[in-house]
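We modelled the chain as a single entity of 200 amino acids. Its sequence is:
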Amino acid sequence: MKNLQILKLFTEPVFKYKLEEYEQLNKQLSDYIYKLRETDKKGIKRSNKGGWHSQNFQLTDPNSIQFKFGVKLNQYIINTFKNFGWKIENKNIRISEMWAIINKKEDFNVLHTHPNCYLSSAYYVKAEKNCGKFEIENPNIAKRHLFPEIAVRNELNLEVASIEVNEGDLLLFPSYLPHKVGTNKSDEDRIVISFNVDIK
């Protein structure tokens, strides 16, 4: 139709980056995460159904791979803040916590959010084909209460958005976005590092 403008006023973004030289980084991160699992085989229970969820990483040793990884992430966090139009000058923007999840075949993560922070993330250390998509649900619950029958799926009526992921991908998104992880249908472990960002 002529003279139509569609004003998309309340966008819910997910920022997807590809880390440079991620192959060597992922090897070191993978070694670190598997060692953590060796020392704490039980792990903890959060959104994971099956799989193994680590305790929070120790991020204070500047010689550790997890510390170096955190430093590398700063540029992507700052870029995301800038894209949001959030103030960064004289702000102590920090990674408040970081952890890993190893999902074996048939493991998945249920819908959840990350309260009390501004950004959350998923970084893909190991992600074989069919390892489970990253899924975001529309946070506007009112839109699910009443709507006509949908003829064509598009971004204006989408309830769940699925994101294909590969090794070296970094997703940064508002922490209030409800998200989950599809079932790992591959025969390989799926290794993800997640972290939260706040302002101290």
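As a brief sanity check on the tokenised model: The CA atoms of residues 68 and 178 lie 29 Å apart. The chain has a mean pLDDT of 95.
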